[in-house]
Amino acid sequence: MLSVRIQGQTYRISNKTLDRLVGANDWVHVDSGLLQNRIRHEYLAGRLIETQGRRLRLATATEEAERRLGSEDDPSEILRWGLLYVGSRLADVANQLRALHDALQFDTDATTASLSRDTSQVTGDQP
Fold it and tell me: Are residues 8 and 29 in the same domain?
């Protein structure tokens, strides 16, 4: 766990987050001052976000795009981050739909059966 001071606040960043940010255990060999500067830069760029208790974690693509979208002035950067935000939200929705589909495990016979009053094919009843 590493402590970093950013804009007058002290934040903590876990070893696991450092592994994902810098590389598995590569951060151990980096100068402490350089590592803290990198963390400050990543935080200000929107790639790290604050969680409960002043801890930092990597932002999701949606969180990073949302944060950058609110801080940009250049129209081309606003467009870029806006498109990234929309794309990441669509990916989130697609993942949720996939999870819902897997949870429900549709019965393909029931969903493809013809719609008629004769239910013998669906229930397996024979006359």
Answer: yes
